[in-house]
Amino acid sequence: MDESKLKEGSCKYHMIGGDGPNSYAQNSEYQKQLLVSAEELIHELIDKHLDLENPPFDPQNTFKIADFGCSIGPNAFFAIENIIAAIVNKYKSNQNKNPNHPIPEFQIFFNDLVDNDFNTLFTNLPTARKYFVAGVPGSFHGRLFPKSTLHFAHCSTALHWLSRVPEAVAKRGSTAWNKGKIHYSGAGEEVKEAYAGQYREDMEVFLNARGEELVDGGLMVLVLIGFRDGVLCSDSSIGGVFDILISCLQDVANMGKISEEKVDSFNLPFYYPSPSELKGLIEANGLFNIERMAELGAPMRRNPDAQVLTSHLRAVIEGLIEEQFGDGIVEELFTIYLERFAKSPALLDDRCWKETNYFVFLKRKPSFPIGESLL
Amino acid sequence: MDESKLKEGSCKYHMIGGDGPNSYAQNSEYQKQLLVSAEELIHELIDKHLDLENPPFDPQNTFKIADFGCSIGPNAFFAIENIIAAIVNKYKSNQNKNPNHPIPEFQIFFNDLVDNDFNTLFTNLPTARKYFVAGVPGSFHGRLFPKSTLHFAHCSTALHWLSRVPEAVAKRGSTAWNKGKIHYSGAGEEVKEAYAGQYREDMEVFLNARGEELVDGGLMVLVLIGFRDGVLCSDSSIGGVFDILISCLQDVANMGKISEEKVDSFNLPFYYPSPSELKGLIEANGLFNIERMAELGAPMRRNPDAQVLTSHLRAVIEGLIEEQFGDGIVEELFTIYLERFAKSPALLDDRCWKETNYFVFLKRKPSFPIGESLL
């Protein structure tokens, strides 16, 4: 819990707050549609894998759910209500077998970075909710909850955020120095490997932390963006978006409004794993059983709209731009970006959208494998 | 959990956020000094009344503490760290008897109204803290936590806030209509009784909610402002402060900047119980044993400074003023207030400070008295 270290690495790693036209709240329909497409899977898998005869799920206890990387709603509320509905269904159907097993109370923890706009999150909470609420500030790349206090963890379209840009990438003279680029997309092997190394490290920390926080038999849903094995980021719409962004930054540098050096040292802290890479990391960690991995639908890829997609990008990365370049260039940068994006027909073409959304359903293994505690 | 009702009643019932010169953070030294004066009592009483052999205090569980009405720090952090230190002492001294009884992890819940500035609270969290954190938005005049999930509750200088101004007081034609005044201080018996009735109702709700949330044997510290039996609010510095405030509001109304009607319908939602009144309410509620009631010191009463006390009042009630009159008069009102306050020597006199700070230490009675669960 060394917050000073966290802050240093992540002070602008948050979505745009408030409720205005540039806010994440107004520009996260894509993420919402992903949650819609995961809705049924969540019902099916909770019904199958939530083990109500396991002591940590005693309904005398509160059922505790955390959403990691919640941002400011309303998507987080939608996701949580779907999970609660599935859990309540499970308890209800169990009551036929065991009538003394009442539906528990729910306590929901909404987590995001310290700089997340929790004020807006709390103001927007659904008024008719049937659960108790708490907000938890801090990076999910680290422990946020006491040992064995969560029953269910949820993390949607957040795990592509690295805890930091890998050091070597921004370091002049390093073999992985990423001059002239802002991401591993289209960069050399060393850059890709530096990013992949950071992702491995971050996922290990994430899984260990959640492994400690979840009860034995606790469940976790991850929704994340990645590429099918063999697909390169540079061939995708994400790669295309980053190419346009770097060209716009260079334009702003050419106007003399920001320094070349700042552009050279700017890199986006995003990583998009393939399914086999992700599976490998979860298995190597060893704390969770993978109960299901599935591809989700691809929302908003038909007839994508340049304005909508530009606003979406801005809501996500404006904080990073401000942190590196100050707030003086944001308006201009995204004005240029919108023009250029609209003139890139390839990016508006379906074939360009090669990234995929993955759904992963995990179950915390028992801390003591059966029998071991008897030795 | 009907938030719409809560919001209606309490949307500006919060301290001034941020870190600026008018913020509560910069103007709550009085409250801080109260916590300092309660420090030793808390150590002594936790040592005496925290029963580590009681199953809900099993150190395998997290030890959960909530601060009700936390505002935005730093006082809340100070209070919590003192409580944790006292609890850790108790566990340590217990380890001599029972070495297998380790110190638990701590999870701290900081509660205040939805409109509290949680962003500032989270940003200001101590970096070297040894506890997990969550923020809980909502009125403490109602349930905020699942059943039996807290071990310790703390509420300091917050319980004089009523959940709302008693209806009759602001109602033209009611026998309790409080025309020309903004509080029961100096008002007729009906007004005082309307306020007292609201306080009784609110305390009953508060105690019932905390009674459900705390485990059996759970502890609660209340620090609150009141008057010794027989002392009238109108004879005190609080009464004097309100007299000046109403005269300033009338001045602003005479300038034509706010309407007389708005002044007439404005009433402060504060109530200051006497110790016997408070004791009576806790005993009538019946869920808690009163382990100790004590008077606390009277910080900042020597040589009070008009500017400091004006800033303090402003940090507390600016939200209420804005809610009733808009934000256009705040600067002017407090400029007039400061002038007039500085010219009121009686208020700067020690003899005027007749209100007292009470410390109350409560213990949750067992839900099932010993033996009853065996019937």
UniProtKB/TrEMBL annotation, chains A, B:
Pfam families, alphabetically?
A: Methyltransf_7
Gene Ontology biological process terms from the UniProt entry: methylation
Report whether Magnesium shows up as a keyword of the record.
Answer: yes
Q: Which Gene3D superfamilies match?
A: Methyltransferase, alpha-helical capping domain (1.10.1200.270), Vaccinia Virus protein VP39 (3.40.50.150)
Enumerate the UniProt keywords alphabetically.
Magnesium, Metal-binding, Methyltransferase, Transferase
GO MF? metal ion binding; methyltransferase activity
Domain of life according to the entry: Eukaryota
The record ties this protein, via InterPro entries, to: MeTrfase_7 (IPR005299), MeTrfase_capping (IPR042086), SAM-dependent_MTases_sf (IPR029063)
Q: What family does the database annotate?
A: Belongs to the methyltransferase superfamily. Type-7 methyltransferase family.
Q: What is this protein called?
A: S-adenosylmethionine-dependent methyltransferase
Top-down, what is the taxonomic lineage of the species of origin?
Eukaryota, Viridiplantae, Streptophyta, Embryophyta, Tracheophyta
